[in-house]
Structures are given as structure tokens and as C-alpha cells.
Amino acid sequence: MKTRAAILEEGSKAFEIRELDVDDPGVGEVHIRYVASGLCHSDLHLIDGDIVPRFPIVAGHEGSAIVESVGPGVTKVEPGDHVVCTFTPNCGTCRYCATGHSNLCDLSAYLINPAGFPDGTFRYHGQGRDYGSMCLLGTFSERATVSQHSVVKVDQWLPLEPAALVGCGVPTGWGTAVNSGGVSAGDTVVIYGIGGVGINAVQGAVYAGAKYVVVVDPVEFKRRTAIEFGASHAYATAEEAAAKVTELTWGQGADQALITVGVVDEKVVANAFDVIGKTGTLVVTGQAHPDKLTIQIPGALLTRGEKVIRGSQFGSSNPQYDIVKLLRLYDAGRLKLDELITKRYTLDQINEGYQDLRDGKIIRGLIVHDRR
Ligand SMILES: NC(=O)c1ccc[n+]([C@@H]2O[C@H](COP(=O)([O-])OP(=O)(O)OC[C@H]3O[C@@H](n4cnc5c(N)ncnc54)[C@H](O)[C@@H]3O)[C@@H](O)[C@H]2O)c1
Ligand SMILES: [Zn+2]
Ligand SMILES: [Zn+2]
After folding, report:
1. 141, 180, 243, 321: which could join 5 in a potential S-S bond, CB 3.0 to 4.6 Å?
2. Could you tell which of 37, 42, 294 is best to mutate to test the pocket of ligand 1, judged by most ligand atoms within 8 Å of the CB?
3. Counting beta carbons within 10 angstroms of the beta carbon of residue 338, is it exposed (0 to 12), middle (13 to 18) or buried (19 or more)?
4. Nearest ligand to the C-alpha of residue 358?
């Protein structure tokens, strides 16, 4: 089967559209036709060098699709099913899946490098070479063959375009607040960075009953959007936000600080650590190059205030459960998805879409694939 896909070679400064061959589904695999794919910052890290995959790679990891055919032994879905792809596969049987942490499934070891299947094979090929697929998905492609562990069947009546965002940004942001941060009624939350992830941290914090949701983003459009999504205060700088939090909490500090900036550095971490009060929780969800030391804080204050610092992968969500749950909240009118999509693009316009992300013009851009 042929497909058109946005790929990156080592050193690529932009996505390039290439025609590739996609394998038929093998044992436990499904062949899918992507409907839509969100422009998450994590794919930009592949170009900027903050995530280093095996190249060449078909990019994209936030998508929705329709199942076209299934390989032997597939019991989870059948042709015609609507699915949201999960960027962390869940096998159901490894230690992490078996203990309720399927966002940390052992199959995650293959997501970036080799970005290929555990048996050392790949499903995309072209010019005599194997192409990996970002997070074992490669959603910037018209078609793909993926493991059944990478798809979650969703209600047939829901629109697949907004559903694509529930493959990464929505559960990651929502869960950063609700699961990893443990936001509860009456809390004061500070969120650094309002992109496709941070805006959903706003949605999660508001839904969980936070009294104040204070956001920080240098881009005015992002701050305005956060207020529309229920944030109580929005500032261009961490210093302004910290002063307001001191006032709002009579000096006690925030209950949670959530870091969802595009590239995490020690400055934003230090600001977030300072803004939380005793027993407060700091959640690091944004990424940086894995060799970079991004957490530089005074340990004595961590000890004396019993502060908590934790990472968050996929918002500590369980893909199989939370993707369906969030879509049903959308269906019930309790979660905004359509409003997250600032602009739609064709696959050929992918570089324009990522330039808009760099320029702070979009909350989430969405690639809508041709129906063919
Ligand atoms: N841990 C996970 O499971 C997971 C999943 C998805 C994405 N991510 C990561 O989350 C981060 C955010 O992704 P996104 O798609 O929302 O990115 P994005 O580029 O759409 O949004 C980032 C926002 O941060 C703002 N920003 C940048 N520096 C800032 C600073 N110092 N203070 C305040 N705001 C600042 C930008 O203006 C922008 O609005 C990325 O690092 C991405 O790789 C992590
Ligand atoms: Zn993502
Ligand atoms: Zn597992």
C-alpha cells in the first residue's frame, strides 16, 4: 500500500513529503487510514534536536483514524472501527500496565529510537530504506500499520477531527493538572506555557474545582485564550504571576505549579518551585534535551516545605480508559475540543503549520488528511 507522509532525515530543518510503502498488518497489527493529526510541539523537538530519534522517521504522534484491515490475532478492533491513536502503546501485561501505569508501558522504550517494532522491523519503506514512525504511529501520513496496542476504539458517532487531539495534548494537559498535580476543589494552580498541552491543563484544573488558575505565557493570544477557557489570571511573566499568587493566598503560595512550556529550562523550574507553598506539587510535563540538567533548586527548601516535584508522561493518564472518558466528557458538553483547533492544514502545509506554532499563532493546528 502506498502513502504520502511527512518525514525527517537526520539534520532536516523542515518536514518533507515523500511517497512511501506501508506494510500489510502482521500478527497483532492493524492497518489504519489517518483522518486528522494535531501539531504537537514534540514533533518540532525532532527538528530542533531536543528529541533525538532514529532517522529517517515519519513524524506525528497525535491522531485519529479508521481501521481498514487487521492482521492475525487482532481482537481489539475490526475494520471500520474509529480509533484514537495513543502515543504510548499499552500492552496490558507488563509491570506498568498491570499496576495501573499503562502510560509507562514497557513498549515505550521503542517510541523514539528505534521508532520501530520490538522485533527490529519497520512498517514504512522507501528508496530501499526502512522509515521509523514517531511514537510507533507516524500520524503525519495518510496511512499506517501499527500495533493494536497503539489504538483505542472510540464511539463511532464522535467527530474524528477534534478527537485526534485526545491522542496526546488533551490527556497530557488535563492529566497534568488532575492526575499528576492532584488539583482539587479550592486549590490555587499556576500553569506555565499555554500551548495545546497547557490549555488542557487549564481545562483540567478548572474542572477539578481550582479556586484560582493563574497562567503565564509571553504571547498575548495565549493568555486571552486561557481566560476564555476558565483561567482566572494571566500574565506575561513568572514574576507578575508570583506576586499575584502571594496576594491571592496570603503568602502561602500555590498548591500546584504545572510546567507545559515548549522547552523546559532551569529558570522556569526555579520559578515554579518558588511559587508553590509548603506541601505544594510541581509537575514537569514539558520536555528538553535529555542531557540537559533542567532542575536546579535549593534542596533545603524542598525538605523544609515538603514540596513535591514529579514528572508527568501522558498526564499520568491511562490511554485505554482516559481517551474514551475525555471524549465522552466532550460529548456531554463538559470538555472543549473544537475550540482548541485554531487552524486546519493539509499535509502539504505542515511546515506552514509548524511556523504558526513557532510564531505563537495557534493553540493547536490540525492536519486533515485527504480522503482517498
Ligand atoms: N510529557 C508528555 O507526555 C508530553 C506530551 C506532549 C507534549 N509534551 C511537551 O509539552 C511541551 C508543550 O507542548 P505544546 O505542544 O503545548 O507546545 P506549544 O509550543 O504549543 O506551547 C508552548 C507554550 O509555552 C509558551 N512558553 C515558552 N516559554 C515559556 C516560558 N518560559 N514561560 C511561559 N510560557 C512559555 C509558548 O509561548 C507557548 O505558548 C513540549 O515540550 C512538548 O514536547 C510532553
Ligand atoms: Zn504530543
Ligand atoms: Zn505494558
Report:
1. 141
2. 42
3. exposed
4. 1
3-class DSSP state for residue 167? helix
CB-CB contact of 103 with 312 (8 Å): no
pLDDT at 141 over 90: yes
**CATH number belonging to domain 2-167+336-368:** 3.90.180.10
- Between the CA of 244 and the centroid of ligand 2 the distance, in Å, is 31
pLDDT at 226: 99
Which residues, chain by chain, have CB under 5 Å from ion ligand 3? 91, 94, 97, 105
Residue 161 has pLDDT above 80, yes or no: yes
Give, for ligand 1, the residue of 48, 285, 310, 356 to mutate: max count of ligand atoms closer than 8 Å to Cβ: 285
CATH for 173-313 (2.60.120.650, 1.10.357.20, 3.90.420.10, 3.40.50.720): 3.40.50.720
Pull the grid cell for residue 161. Answer: 477531527
Structural domain boundaries in the chain: 2-167+336-368, 173-313
Percentage of the chain lying above the pLDDT 90 cut: 99
- pLDDT of res. 371: 74
Q: Give the closest residue to 218 by CA, choosing from 242, 191, 237.
A: 237
From the list 37, 133, 168, 180, the catalytic residue is: 168
How many Cβ atoms from other residues are within 10 Å of residue 346's Cβ?
Answer: 12
For residue range 278-323, list pLDDT tens digits in order: 999 999 999 999 999 999 999 999 999 999 999 999 999 999 999 9
pLDDT value at residue 372? 60
78-106 exposure pattern, b = at least 16 Cβ within 10 A, e = fewer: eeebbbbbbbbbbbeebebbeeeebbbbe
**b/e burial code for range 357-369 (CB count within 10 A of at least 16 → b):** beebebbbbbbbb
Q: Which atom, in ligand 1's list, is nearest to the CA of 222?
A: 39
